[in-house]
Design goal:
- One of its GO terms (cellular component) is plasma membrane.
- It is a single-pass type II membrane protein.
- This protein is an alpha/beta fold.
- It contains three helices and seven strands, in the order E-E-H-E-E-E-H-E-H-E.
- Helix 2 runs parallel beside helix 3.
- The longest helix has 22 residues.
- It is rod-shaped.
């Protein structure tokens, strides 16, 4: 901190002016205030949740389940029957969607299949009104 010590010529009485320069103190305090304002919401912004535990249940293959496969080149198969295009798939799925109980759709996508091809199958299921769609994967390490 600096002190302003005037010379006797500046003051008529010859007394010294001993005021403290508080500008650096205010600068430091403002920087600390900004740091606290930025970091406190990050620290206190957590909601107590009970997160679900990971579980890997094997699929129960039932005859009424629909098994769709997407190959690496984007071709679609209903069990082993090739589906030529998305409108045909939607029409076939609409026939199945009206059944009670509604069958589940299980999608098997090749690991080299484009995301777009698998996404089109999921969108077709949505357009047909299928309520439950799942993805079939292999366990890690195979």
């Amino acid at each position: 901190m600096a002190m302003n010590l005037g010379s006797p010529e500046d003051d008529e009485d010859g007394a010294m002016n001993a005021t403290i320069n508080t500008t650096p103190l205010v600068d430091v305090m403002l920087v600390l205030l900004i740091i606290f304002l930025i970091t406190i919401p990050v620290v206190t912004q957590s909601v107590q949740l009970s997160l679900p535990k990971e579980s890997n249940a094997p699929t129960q293959t039932r005859p009424e389940n629909i098994l769709l496969a997407v190959t690496h080149d984007g071709q679609m198969y209903w069990n082993t029957r090739r589906i030529p295009d998305i409108p045909t798939l939607v029409a076939e799925l609409k026939k199945e969607a009206v059944k009670v109980p509604q069958p589940e759709v299980h999608i098997r996508g090749d690991e080299n299949a484009r995301y777009e091809a698998v996404g089109q199958v999921v969108t077709a299921c949505q357009r047909a009104g299928i309520a439950k769609v799942g993805f079939i994967t292999e366990p890690a390490g195979r």
